[in-house]
Amino acid sequence: MxxxxxxxxxxxxxxxxxxxxxxxxxxxxxKLIYLSEDEHNGQWACAEGIKYFKSYAIKHFTDEEIYxxxxxxxxxxxxxxxxxxxxxxxxxxxxxDLTKSNYSQESIHHxxxxxxxxxxxxxxxxxxxxxxxxxxxxxxxxxxxDLTALEEALAVTIQEIFRLQxxxxxxxxxxxxxxxxxxTRLTYLSKDGKxxxxxxxxxxxxxxxxxxxxxxxxxxxxxKVVMNAGRELSMRIAEQLGIHCHLSLHYRLDSSHFITADxxxxxxxxxxxDYSLLYNTGCGYFALCIQLE
Length: 293
Prior knowledge:
The protein is 57% helix and 16% strand. The chain contains 9 helices and 6 strands. The longest helix is centred in the first third of the chain and has 29 residues.
């Protein structure tokens, strides 16, 4: 993980003020990774470091937005929306998890993994586009009634299936690592032959808790029983979403497969997702990504 946090010249976009801020953010993350490995007082040092990271990141977002406005950047509104998602949803949700767990090592690792992954993807795709280093990535942004309906349906479904309340962490999840997870890709076909891909990412702690509750016995490892139960749960989540969103009559399940984290990241790079949501259930993280044809 620490190697990923090292500054690399490929992160430069060619605007000194922005590059320096990015270098500083990665430096803070490196220090936090080091502190998180200290079993004695690392969690308390991390608590102060995380507050500094948040403060510096929010200031950087503002500075970057001022720069984009100064050059008349055409994708300013979408870029600011991505910043706002981090400002007002992801960071507060991660902070809530940290506080609730008394800055446990697991919650610190959640924070670091998601922030590190977000920074890397955001710089390489969105920030480099500011300076014309790469063509604009056509991220699909679906605010409004459709997104609200999906979020509400998913919250109800998680409550029904896992008996857990959810907190939204991000409306623009882009594959950030939040720990060991099981990833299922479900492909649905519409009546006119169009495909819809659903990616369900269940953190192992959440899945083990769910299957342990179902069987009324403690489970501590991901074996074939747990994996197959997880795939079935993923299909039931998708089925319930279809019912809540009035889609169940128009689509049928065509295939379901487990995929690796690398395959999941490749899916992000190949084609933008129409919806990509990240939740915290209190017992583990859960992501739902939808790709429409």
